Amino acid sequence: MTQDPTKQGHFQRGGAEYARYRPSYPPELVDALAALAPGCNLAVDVGCGSGQLSALLAERFERVVASDVSESQLANAIAHPRISYRHEAAEAIGIGAGEADLVVAAQAAHWFDLGAFYREVRRVAGEGGVVALISYGVPYLESPLNVWLQRFYWQELHPFWPPERYHVETGYNDLPFPFEPLEMPALFIRRSWNLHELTGYIRTWSASKRLLEQQREALLLDFEATLAEVWGTPAEQVPIVWPVSFRVGRVAK
Ligand SMILES: C[S@@+](CC[C@H](N)C(=O)[O-])C[C@H]1O[C@@H](n2cnc3c(N)ncnc32)[C@H](O)[C@@H]1O
Fold first, then answer.
1. Per-residue pLDDT for 2 more than 50?
2. How far is the CA of 229 from the centre of ligand 1 (A)?
3. What percent of the chain has pLDDT over 90?
4. Residue 120 has pLDDT above 60, yes or no
5. For 99, what's the count of Cα atoms within 13 Å in the CB-facing half-sphere?
6. Probe residue for ligand 1, chosen from 6, 22, 107, 208 as the CB with the greatest number of ligand atoms within 8 Å
7. Which residues have CB under 6 Å of ligand 1?
8. What is the pTM of this model?
């Protein structure tokens, strides 16, 4: 594997927390992708993490090949009889030419060497095959508590994000995407979370991990203490929403 090891490092640990706290996707997302794909035989989910999207894809596709460079993520991945997990890079997909109906990367493409990944997409996609880059952006709370979350995200934590985060914040709009674009419906991830679920999720962010590495955990602890004060009862559930962004296209052969 040829990736920059500092990029891979963000996900080499913490697979269990990722599996526990990261949200999954709305089923309508997979419905829309399955409707665009030329068939539902094989979906390839690269940068699959702990299988958040792979498990949904397995409900619509006969076979899902899900791969990631992080063993920690794969060790915590959702098991499913139609998913085969592989430890490999998005830039070297271990399936034959023309086999895939759909190649998808969820919240992952901003880490890839896109030129090498797109070469692989063209190789593995079958006739009429579809490639989809999916990301979910900065969440907001449907509550006055949102002010605290946004202040922490944009003012305190922001300098600690790796530069690749820019592409998530801008909905992947500036990523090169040399494919015939396909329309997708507007989609949102919606959950209702208690205090523990929100703080657990925030600790899975690359920026939070960087705070810990730099012995700056106090910033995180201060925010968690403030949030606990304003939240009221910790078990109280607050609606949280992530807008989902896409670059979806048809792969020309
Ligand atoms: C933010 S996680 C997204 C995981 C999952 N797809 C999701 O939607 O929650 C990004 C994942 O991409 C993986 N990754 C980063 N660079 C990669 C590469 N070049 N090839 C394959 N996986 C990669 C990381 O190990 C990590 O598991």
1. no
2. 34
3. 90
4. yes
5. 13
6. 107
7. 3, 7-8, 11, 22, 46-49, 52-53, 68-70, 73, 89-91, 106-108, 111-112
8. 0.92
Residue nearest to atom 13 of ligand 1 (CA): 47
pLDDT at 6: 43
Residue-wise pLDDT for 44-84, tens only, equals 999 999 999 999 999 999 999 999 999 999 999 999 999 99
- What six digits make up the tokens of 66? 């899900």
| Domain 5-250 CATH superfamily | Vaccinia Virus protein VP39 (3.40.50.150)
pLDDT value for 71:
95
| C-alpha 48 to ligand 1 mean position (Å) | 6
The domains of the chain are located at 5-250
Task: State phi, psi for 46 to the nearest 5 degrees.
Answer: -95, 145
89: CA distance to ligand 1 center in Å? 9
Whose CA is closest to 33, among 58, 6, 69? 58
* Cα 75 to Cα 72: distance, rounded to the nearest angstrom: 5
